[in-house]
Amino acid sequence: xxxxxxxxxxxxxxxxxxxxxxxxxxxxxxxxxxxxxxxxxxxxxxxxxxxxxxxxxxxxxxxxxxxxxxxxxxxxxxxxxxxxxxxxxxxxxxxxxxxxxxxxxxxxxxxxxxxxxxxxxxxxxxxxxxxxxxxxxxxxxxxxxxxxxxxxxxxxxxxxxxxxxxxxxxxxxxxxxxxxxxxxxxxxxxxxxxxxxxxxxxxxxxxxxxxxxxxxxxxxxxxxxxxxxxxxxxxxxxxxxxxxxxxxxxxxxxx
Amino acid sequence: xxxxxxxxxxxxxxxxxxxxxxxxxxxxxxxxxxxxxxxxxxxxxxxxxxxxxxxxxxxxxxxxxxxxxxxxxxxxxxxxxxxxxxxxxxxxxxxxxxxxxxxxxxxxxxxxxxxxxxxxxxxxxxxxxxxxxxxxxxxxxxxxxxxxxxxxxxxxxxxxxxxxxxxxxxxxxxxxxxxxxxxxxxxxxxx
Amino acid sequence: xxxxxxxxxxxxxxxxxxxxxxxxxxxxxxxxxxxxxxxxxxxxxxxxxxxxxxxxxxxxxxxxxxxxxxxxxxxxxxxxxxxxxxxxxxxxxxxxxxxxxxxxxxxxxxxxxxxxxxxxxxxxxxxxxxxxxxxxxxxxxxxxxxxxxxxxxxxxxxxxxxxxxxxxxxxxxxxxxxxxxxxxxxxxxxxxxxxxxxxxxxxxxxxxxxxxxxxxxxxxxxxxxxxxxxxxxxxxxxxxxxxxxxxxxxxxxxxxxxxxxxxxxxxxxxxxxxxxxxxxxxxxxxxxxxxxxxxxxxxxxxxxxxxxxxxxxxxxxxxxxxxxxxxxxxxxxxxxxxxxxxxxxxxxxxxxxxxxxxxxxxxxxxxxxxxxxxxxxxxxxxxxxxxxxxxxxxxxxxxxxxxxxxxxxxxxxxxxxxxxxxxxxxxxxxxxxxxxxxxxxxxxxxxxxxxxxxxxxxxxxxxxxxxxxxxxxxxxxxxxxxxxxxxxxxxxxxxxxxxxxxxxxxxx
Lengths: 255, 191, 508
Fold this sequence. Notes:
The structure holds three protein chains of three kinds. Chain A folds into two domains: 2-129 and 220-252, no CATH class; 135-209, no CATH class. Chain A contains ten helices and no strands. Chain A has helices spanning 20-36, 40-57, 60-87, 96-99, 101-119, 122-131, 136-166, 173-178, 180-209, 226-252. The two termini of chain A are 47 Å apart. By secondary structure, chain B is mainly α. Chain B has one domain. Helices cover 73% and strands 2% of the residues of chain B. Chain B has seven helices and two strands. Chain B has helices at 10-13, 20-44, 49-69, 75-91, 97-114, 125-147, 155-185; strands at 5-6, 18-19. Chain B has a two-stranded antiparallel sheet with strand order 1-2. Chain B starts with a strand and ends in a 6-residue tail after the last helix. Among the domains of chain C are: 1-83 and 162-167 and 200-243, 3-Layer(aba) Sandwich (Rossmann fold); 292-502, Rossmann fold (3-Layer(aba) Sandwich), CATH 3.40.50.300. Chain C has 13 helices and 20 strands. A six-stranded mixed β-sheet of chain C has the order 6-7-8-3-9-10, sandwiched between helices. Chain C has a six-stranded mixed β-sheet with strand order 11-20-14-19-18-17, with helices on both faces. Chain C is globular, with a radius of gyration of 24 Å. Chains in contact: A-B, A-C, B-C. At the A-C interface, α7 and α9 of A face α3 and α4 of C.
């Protein structure tokens, strides 16, 4: 919420210094276009463009780690398919060129997500949604959600510890599998009670502040920077080229 | 009524259904659903069937309690919207399915409203949640199919994940009803 | 400025009057201590004066509360909130923004103040409350005292006329309390009127001129702050002393009259805490940059729980202990005090095996410390109560789910010792804060252990329940285990501690 009064000064981290709105827009565009495209070569082209964007905005080590994780997930999925294919042979019939399309889509989405997730604070993202004219009825609960996730995570850590103390010597998985209702009670009930109390206190404090659902947290955005405009232009070009490639490949019967 | 309210129509007309305190409660319960599912995924691994069941059970039980605290038409849709937006912001998920899921949830809420609404018939929360969560999973399966249409074998995993999580939803409904009864007894939720 | 006339209030869904015929007034810049035992109606009165009833809290309000001619109930919460602001007991629950500066800016934006004007006001508030170096800090990383100051900065950004504070001392150590008192004095100097509801009055000396004591929702006493010096009145109304308590070994302060409750004090069976400072018992001298200890220096250690050459630091944090050695004796109550953040709770966690030392050893009769040998009661009572009734909560602790007449009788006996037997059938989460605090300590005492560690067991207790808790802690130690009490409450130390360890102040 740093942007309350001077959003135009605040941009996310990352080499391109893009506004969160730009990153959001790029992510949506990448996801939609990757779903629309079907030809593996067109998708590969889009993947290459998206890798350039991710490389410009993400540290190489982080990027490599993310790719390694994605590779692992893809390998697990392929193993699953292979297993199912050995039980139901028709499932093995898809040509390899087509089989890689889902993974190319996953790669495009990952490349578009990483700059957003790694370079933007959640509060800034919520602000960005506010500036995109999200109605107050959505903005206020979204702000509360984002503000309270760390608090609740901390509560859950404390809860685990308290249960460990109270049920010392009986903390193994087997004990909880044998007593699922006790598990439910000891973890869920304190969480719910805490939520209800916090909701009442925060609502009280909010009303006393004069906070209303239509309070504008978004500040007044400045104009998009040259980096923002360049990124959007490049994204449009990349999607256009990939779409053209798809149509050309279809025309040639390679799709 | 001094509390400022805002509802579906407020963005257009300035009149509303929700008070600030209700929006705060919806926000907090959404935070709890997200935080507990992150915690369970960290402890048990994201794709472990037990984790999938527990995550969904906690999520649906939270919704049961939320609907007891804010028994209004629109609560479920708003809560789902917040959850979807958060998944979108955190993980880039639900870009495509968001509008379809919202439409599905609104349709379920509309049916509940036609049946008398939550304020008059609190038990409607249970069939409403069961139906909307089923619709969400069906929509997710359909959207996933779009993404893996060239390799239908991958759908087996998607369907298994959806089945486990829906089993969790059903278990969570039972747990949520029991918990709500107890919270009413403790005076934490008013009748 | 503020006039309250024949104010009565009944909560929604309750048949009981929470407030009855309350009348008083307050002038500009005046400060009032609102005292009374737990459940006497202090928080309810503050909520009404903050404008929350009847709009937010619903319920039935009779009588009048007027602030500068504006009548409570006739205007909305937000409108009334321009004149009167309320600081709740848990400061973190009031933050909606991520950092200190953002919280002030958000508060201003809610009132339509934006741009350079808002920046100017925020800068002024940050400076006035000594928060300028913390302006960009995340609220999650602030200490309790800093959180309260940040909330105060936001609350006073638009210069309200009346500031209401609910139990501000509950989670603060004496050093932070001094800081809070200074801040409140500064705000009072700006013309702000204050109403402070608190169980610990000593830190309000010189700040509050007036006193109103509630009992059962009615005004039982109205007078000057100095009237708290009357021990008979304090005993009758369950109040704590207005004198600054001092730890044992440093000498009993002049005029300190530890409260006694003739005829009403629940006698724990001949145990010692009926007043007077604790006697320091023989114990090992602490060494190695850790705690300083009141007790005959150099006397022979008789403790069976030993800490030797303890080193500990959290990842990426400073070293909290650099070679600490001490011992805890079975059958004794050891009080551990010191400023927030110096490692009191961490030391208790290390002793119970919840944290592992970086170097050194903690042993129980030669066995390494572990959770199997210790019992720890943490601060947050809500996290420690799960069951549908108070009785089943204790039964779960006594027999881990097994029931039977003997377990049930033992549970009832334990509840009676803490004055909770009348609440056995209630849901634990429907109890008041003080009742829950007593229940979690009762649960902690339910199972035999070699070390019982209690973290801030009296933070929200009135004078009567403070004595009750002190007596039960002393009784627990007599039964065998070593008892470690981590606390900021020096009155408790005086009432039940055999030894007092104080972690050194390092310029915090």
